[in-house]
Amino acid sequence: MKKVFFALTTLALIVACTPKTAEVVEVVTVTTEETTEALVMRKPSVEESEGMTLYNAHCGKCHELKTISDYSMERWTKIVPNMASQAKLDATQESKIMAYVKWQLGK
Predict the structure, then answer these.
(1) What's the pTM value of the predicted model, to 2 decimals?
(2) Is 57 exposed, middle or buried, given 0-12, 13-18 or 19+ CB atoms closer than 10 A?
(3) How far apart are CA 5 and CA 94, in angstroms?
(4) How high is the mean pLDDT in each 10-residue block of the chain (107 residues)?
(5) CA dihedral of 51, 72, 80, 98, whole degrees rounded to 10
(6) I need a labelling partner for 14 at 20 to 30 A (CA). Which of 24, 29, 43, 48 fits?
């Protein structure tokens, strides 16, 4: 009986002395309309969705897909026309890809 009591007491002390690993989370509430609008990204339109499909299908054929946010809108306006002509895309397909890029950049 003494051995069982000693074992349970030792086990209880070990468990009680183990460090607690709870994560501390700080919650910040944003109440301004400007910030709320910036945090909400709208769903893509049909044209933007089609642009995403074209971007994934055609742009990934010859090279690794670029991360859109790695380039500015100004840079994309030079990249897309050049690549669209090389991929033999028509103007409608090119404009859909540009719409997708603009959507990704939040423009």
Answers:
(1) 0.61
(2) exposed
(3) 78
(4) 75 64 57 54 85 89 89 94 93 94 88
(5) 30
(6) 24
